Amino acid sequence: MSEKRKKNWVLSGAFLFDRKLANVLWFGFSLLAVIPEIIGHRINNYLIYKYVYFHTLEKVNLYLEYHAVHEDTNHYGPFFSLIIAPFTALPDWLGVFLWVMGGCAFLYYAIRKLPIDSKYQNAILILSAHEMMTAASWLQVNPFIAGCIILGFVFINEGKEGKALFFILVATFIKIYGIVGFAFFFFSKNKARFILWTVIWSALFFVAPMILAPPSFILQCYKDWYESLQFKANKNAAAKTDDLQDISVMGMIRRIFGLPGFRDIYVVPIAAIAFLSQYVQYKYFNDLRFRFYILCSVLIFTVIFSNGSENPTYIIAFPAVCIWYIIQPRSKWTNAIFIFALLLTSFSYSDLFTPYLREKIVRPYSLKALPCFIIWLVILIQVYKKQFLKARLQDVKHIEA
Questions:
Q1: CB pairs under 8 A, 24+ apart, for 60-64?
Q2: Which end of the chain is less congested by CB atoms within 10 angstroms, N or C?
Q3: Whole-model pTM above 0.90?
Q4: What percent of the chain shows pLDDT beyond 70?
């Protein structure tokens, strides 16, 4: 490519739709992130995952502190022991590598399955690549959760409720975030089949860990899991110094206004009502443009209204920001708000920001959540005003009932 063509390729924005670039950045950034963690043996999160399996076999409480093998505690459901089991047979370095790159590939697959032109898929991957890198450096399970929610959306659109509920419930039984996939219920062509598959997969996933341990122990695990999530939520809300947690709307309120006792219940029910109000546009349930707006709203809502959200949790929300952006009719304000989100949400913890900005402004006030919150509000307004009808989805506009 000549220098002139390269310049035009960049200035025109054509690079955003380049498939090779999308693939290189998506997998390359994650590879660059995980290798230093393996070399430096900074694999604590992976050890937490790994010992969910071993502690299940040993029939000991999955949610206690085990400082002899890892720091912090597990907050994933007993079903997760089956997901992580194959990795535990491998050396840690290989297990970590395959875990991270497997999650990266899974979310890649989910984005590639979206019913949208492939050039837009490329743009989503390119614009989300740095956020994927962040999740990879933390060895996080969140790319897998994001992929499950997206695949739930994809298969509901295809009328494949069995597959959709499989992924939605896998995510739910691992990390409770997955339950948001039930927001796609109204898009199902066969509500009875949706409910039937919910019952089938729920029953199977509930009893599946009993392959590894007695039913009485697994039942106790579910109780312990609930209690651990309650404890973690209360701890995150009360945390005054741990600015790596509670990167949420409630976290912003607590930290910006100096209200450490501010309770989530003052915000979350209102946000839930605002989210549900989008369904007043029931006439458009079969319109793919409306469905994409709900997908974006679901993914962002899941993160910004959870006090358990951390920096790498935004791999769930940020692809939604990118989806919202690339389907918008081009305008200066959409460009401006997306650039604001790209910088403050995706890059604010990177060296692109000075240590002072990171440590004294962005992190202490949970500002990573701010652009996502603004875009979520914009989505609500656009849904109310039916502006989703202007979404750029080319010829794919409507789904037959």
A1: 61/224, 62/221, 62/224, 62/225, 63/224, 63/225, 63/227, 63/228
A2: C
A3: yes
A4: 93
